[in-house]
Specification:
- The structure holds two protein chains of two kinds.
- Chain A is an alpha/beta fold.
- Chain A has two domains: 2-229, P-loop containing nucleotide triphosphate hydrolases (Rossmann fold), CATH 3.40.50; 247-286.
- Chain A has helices spanning 47-54, 76-85, 102-112, 117-131, 147-159, 177-194, 205-211, 229-233, 236-241, 248-258, 270-285, and strands at 2-13, 21-32, 36-41, 62-67, 70-71, 86-89, 165-169, 197-201, 214-219, 222-227.
- Chain B is an all-alpha fold.
- Chain B folds into two domains: 1-128 and 235-265, no CATH class; 152-231, no CATH class.
- Chain B is built from eleven helices and no strands.
- Chain B has helices at 16-19, 22-38, 42-58, 63-70, 74-86, 101-127, 130-140, 151-181, 191-197, 199-222, 241-262.
- Chain B is flat and about 70 Å long.
- Chain B starts with 15 loop residues before the first helix and ends with a helix.
- The chains are: A alpha/beta, B mainly alpha.
- The A-B interface holds A 14, 17-18, 52, 55, 57, 80, 83-84, 87-90, 93, 95-98, 108-109, 112-113, 143, 157-158, 161 and B 1, 3-4, 11-13, 174-175, 177-185, 199-200, 203-204, 207-208.
- The structure holds adenosine-5'-diphosphate and magnesium ion.
- Adenosine-5'-diphosphate is lined by residues 13-14, 21, 23, 41, 43-49 of chain A.
Chain lengths: 286, 265
Amino acid sequence: MAVLTVENLKHIYSIGTPFENVGIHDVSLTIGQGERICLLGHTGSGKSTFVQHLNALLQPSSGSVLLDGENINKNKITRRDVKRRVGLVFQYPEYQLFEETVYADIAFGPKNMKLGKEEIDERVHEAARFAGVDDSLLPCSPLELSGGQKRRIAIAGVIAMRPEILILDEPTAGLDPAGSRQIFENIRSYRENSGATVIVVSHSMEDAARFFDRLIVFDHGTVCMDGSPEEVFSRADKLTEIGLNVPKATELARALYRRGVLPDAAVYTHEQLLRAVLQAGGEAAC
Amino acid sequence: MLKDITLGQYFPGETPVHRLDPRTKLILVVLYIIALFQADAWPSYLLVILVTLICMGISKISLKNIFKGLKPMLFIIALTAILNLFYTQGTPVREGWIITWEGIDRAVKMMLRITLLITGTFLLTYTTSPMALTDGLEMLMRPLKKLKVPVHEMTLMMSMALRFIPTLIEETDKIMSAQKARGADFETGSLTQRAKALLPILVPLFVSSFRRADELAIAMESRCYHGGEGRTRMNQLKYGRNDYIALLLGVLFLAAVNVMKHFGL
Ligand SMILES: Nc1ncnc2c1ncn2[C@@H]1O[C@H](COP(=O)(O)OP(=O)(O)O)[C@@H](O)[C@H]1O
Ligand SMILES: [Mg+2]
């Protein structure tokens, strides 16, 4: 069932000035309940512009966004309510921390929702757990922590609103591999526990293949591919053409396939590659 | 959006006005302002308006852009007009009224004067990039160095401030969006509530400004910046034929206004 429907969405920045700039044009998609979606595309392809329309932070120049069939830009109330149901974590969210303690910062969202004290307390602890923020950090000042910790606190701040749709814009930009993996694991556990729909903007093909069921590829403000990792990564030429690549494991599998080592190249993660190679080796040994 | 504030914003273009030397344009604006304050009677006002419109036409700046920039000043303009309207002695418009014909005349002229003043400076900032503007200022103020005025440091500070205004606006926009995504409300509530609502914007903004200032200082030092002494510039400013023509026209304009004033026009 579709929770979000995007129809012919178009956004032009600074409309009516000499600085007019097309962010996205003519994007139409539907997003189903509980889907795990990864948005891919080169820098400037319109991913961030697109996701900011999903919680009415940006208003479309034309076209519409429907949440459960209702236009989210209908009036002030719907624009406010959609922000509670669709949680958006911006790129480099650590720069928006402002409270004196980590606890207060995570509680900012729930407080704005006018929840009771106990409810807020429960949500802060739950969100901290999901985002991998240790309880011992809660009384600290967020400004004194490391980049990775700040990032997780900012993510917890959005999770604390218990969004039905969680969107993260390049949540692992600038983090080390261990930190990135941790964040993806956290997102996965949030999704499994809450059943939320998850949309993540990423540049890592490996993570896209490993953690998501559906990949949507943006190019110059339009959607140019939309499908399962298998479908998208099987079109390696097209991906290269728009400045992206396929996962390293797929690249290697393709090379091995051309040399006749592997029976096919439909491999997208390291684990799959390992299995395929072991299997091929086992067969050769017989 | 905050971005749409046009106060002092540069509109890139390829018109003859854009191509003038920034020093020429700075001098022209000074001449224009002097002329504007010499203008007294209606004919000279009309001349100033005509010249302003011609300059706008040449530099391809539309009335719409000027009005957009005037918006923040509307209050001051209106206030000046109202004060002049009520506090000018003369013959009342009607028996017993405080409003006089002279008051109406003064009010309209004052409104025009402020509007033209702002329009003139807008023509400068709309057609000159901030970098060129500060370069021009530095060159023009160079004689002040003899009097130990830190001209280089002042203009460097100014160009940095100008350089970072768009960055700060962008940053503010981004932080506002991020806090709105967490349900922050900047539009409703009492005055104190709204002031409080600014905290989630101001704190991150200050933090990042300090970080940025720090990074900038390090970047400058690691490129051996050590003040203005002995620095040469990459783009030397040079007067061209157009600059001399423009300056001549500027002086003629000022002279014309003065002659008209002399004849009570
Ligand atoms: N605030 C803005 N003002 C003007 N143009 C913008 C703004 N944000 C993005 N753009 C433009 O919109 C296009 C899409 O940008 P964006 O959505 O940020 O892409 P991505 O997130 O995929 O890198 C780019 O051409 C970019 O320059
Ligand atoms: Mg982006």
